[in-house]
Design goal:
Radius of gyration: 12 Å
Number of domains: 1
Order of helices and strands: EEHEHEE
Oligomer: single chain
Strand order of the largest sheet: 2-1-5-3-4
Number of helices: 2
Helix content: 10-25%
Bound molecules: FE2/S2 (inorganic) cluster
CATH superfamily: Beta-grasp domain
CATH topology: Ubiquitin-like (UB roll)
């Protein structure tokens, strides 16, 4: 299990233990974290699972695929240098303690 801290749009922190191999989206969705809609269920076609990643961890993430990069241009909240689609980020032990900020809106 890997400790992930999600910050919901309201500012509330939710600390979870997420199994390795899950995506950040699955960890949030299975635990009712507010603000991650994940309308396409993780197939990288909706961009409603957009999150901002703690910048100290960016280099530990699996890289952005061309498809994710394209979808990141379609997010409702502004794309930033630390934007990712949470369905495309795999949870690994290197991410222990990661803080994931959910943007204000996904639509
Ligand atoms: S859940 Fe649709 S792009 Fe991530």
């Amino acid at each position: 299990m890997v400790k992930i801290i999600y910050i919901e749009p309201s500012g509330r922190d939710v600390e979870l233990q997420v199994p390795e191999g899950w995506s950040l989206m699955e960890g949030a969705f299975q635990n009712g974290v507010d603000g991650i809609e994940a309308e396409c269920g993780g197939s990288c076609t909706c961009a409603t699972c957009h999150v901002y990643i703690d910048e100290r961890y960016l280099e530990r993430l699996n890289p952005i695929s061309p498809n994710e990069d394209e979808m990141l241009d379609c997010t409702a909240s502004e794309r930033r240098a630390n934007s990712r689609l949470s369905c495309q980020v795999q949870v690994t032990e290197q991410l222990d303690g990661l803080v994931v900020t959910v943007p204000p809106t996904q639509f």
